[in-house]
Amino acid sequence: MDVSPTPAAAKRDGAVAMRIAVLQHTHTAKPAYIFRRAREQIVQWRAGHPLVKSIAMDHHVSLWADLAEQCQSTLKAIADELGSYENLTCIKSDTISATLPALSYASVARMRRAGPHTRYLSATNKSFQWSWNSGDAAVLFWFSHRTATLPRYEFYWTMEWDTVWTGSLPRMLAAFHGEPFSANSTIAGRAQGLRVTYDLLGHELEGAHANYPHKNKVNHSFIMYKDAMYSSTQLMRYSRRLLRRVVEDLEDENNFAYCEMRVPSTCARMERERREAQNASNTTVFEHAQILELSGCTWSSLQNAQPPGAQFFGARGRRVNMDGFSSVVAIGFETVPHHALANDSHPSRFYHRFKWDYHHGYLNTNSTTRGELHVR
Questions:
Q1: Domain range holding 118?
Q2: FRET label pair with 259: which of 8, 48, 223, 291, CA 20 to 30 Å apart?
Q3: pTM to 2 decimal places
Q4: In this structure, is residue 143 part of a structural domain?
C-alpha cells in the first residue's frame, strides 16, 4: 500500500485544512513497526475517514545518532520498514551542539551538580548525561532546520520512541483540534472550546518548584522562578509560534535549561509578559507582545483538554502514572497484544515507557509469544 506522508490536497469539503505534523523521535530502529503503523493510520485516516473535514496531518520520523555510520545503518532499517526515506531524517549530536548555542556541550555542562544526572557533563565532548538532559534537542533541531522545506504546520505533535497506543492515533490527535472523535461525540467543531487553541499540551504541566528534582537546572536570569514550569515529554503538542520563540532563545548560549522545563517555562513566561504588557500604558510594548499571543501555557494539559467522554489517558491498569497514562513500567509483567497495538478497532489509549522485546527483537510474530509485545 502507498504510505506516502504527503497529503494529496490541502482542502477537504471546501474548508482550508489546518496542517499538523506528527513527529516520532528515536535513537534506535527497534520501534520501526510502530512508526510504520503511525504512517499507515494517518494516510488511511486522511484519505477515507468520513469525519475528516478540516485537518491535513503529516507523519515524520527523526533519528538522533552520534555517528554518521549510525545514521546510515539505522535510517536504512527504519526506511526498510516504512518502505521509503520520505520524511525520515537523522540528526547527529555534534551537529546539534555546534548549531544551537544553548544546547552546546559547553552550555549544558553549566548544569553540572545542579541536580541529578549532571556530575559527568563535559564542556567539550558529548556524554550520555548531555543526551539525558537534552531530550528535546532532536525535536528543536528538526524544527529549526527542517521547517523551511516543509509545509507551514500550525501544530506539532511529538512522541517519544517508547510511546505507543491502541486504537487510532490520528483520530485521537485530531480530537484535540475539534474533530469529533466518534459519531456520538459532543464536540461540535473547531469553534467549541479553548482545547483547540492551546499553544502547549503536555503531561504533569505544573510549577518546577518544591520537590521537582531538576528545578535548578536552568539559568534563572532567563527563566524566573515564577515562570518555571515542567512537563514530561512522552507526548506533547506545540504551536508553531511557541516553537519559533523557543528556537530563537536557543541562539543565546547562556539560556540553558533542562529539557522538561525549556518549552513549558518559555510558554509561561511569554503568557505572563503578554498579560503585563496588556495592562501597561506603553502601547508599543503591548503591540510587540501581541505578535505572539499565547494561551493556556500555565495550566493546560492533555488530561484535562481531552474531548468530553474520551479516555485516551484513562487509568484502568495495575500501574498508572500521575499524568493519566496507562503505565507499562515493570512491576511484574504486562503485555500489549500485537493484535491490539495501533489497531483501529480497539479502544484508543496511549501507553508510555513501552520496552520493546529485546530478546526477540522489536517484533517477532513467530515467537512463542505469538506476536505479543512485552513491556518491562
A1: 11-318
A2: 291
A3: 0.84
A4: yes
